[in-house]
Amino acid sequence: MKIANNKKFYILHFTFYILIIITLLSCTTSPQTGSLSGNIQLENESDHSGITIALYDLAELDPDIVEANTKWPHIGVIINQMTEFDHRFANLLKSTQTDANGNFKIKDIPTGRYNFMAMKEGFGFKYIYEILINEGENALSEQCKMKNVRCKMKNNEKKSNSDNFTFLTLNFTLDSNDSTRNTADIILYPATHIHEDITETTIFESSHHYIIENDIYVSGVLTIEHGAVIRIEK
Description:
This protein is an alpha/beta fold and about 230 residues long. It has 4 helices and 15 strands.
């Protein structure tokens, strides 16, 4: 009789532990994830495949400087993702490549904020900072709207409501206007290699990459639009 009672005791305890495990497993939820899709195109190209699309963790910002920026926003050095993020040193989360039409989709992204990059050799790169990935489907076009990012550009567009700063022969133009060119979310432009002095009126256009291959002298008026990227080869 004692042995039978012991068996019942062990069976009851075993059943109790199993119920606890099942309850814990049922309460455990899988991480929320979302996807990001969009369309990237190369200027003057019919094949838009092979563009690398990548998501990176946000750059770490010095908390002391961030606090100082909050308390005294008009003085000191302002830091943010734009000033601190560099994909070469960032932690890559996920990446993919576009198809021939320029379409891409990244799946199973943990919800949160990330820095976005589109890049192809010979065309430079484009960043979008702190895009938000919600659960479910996310479109790059919507991210552009939320971030108020000039993802699209129109050639030879007229600019208005701009603030211009002129220093000697360098003219810097800040422009907040948004415009559309076609259905692509982002246009990547061929990189321009510069190896001669700039002696005539020249414009470094927004979202274009300019690679300075050697020492040059600027004697003409050089206008550098907001968003132009200038890279100096070593």
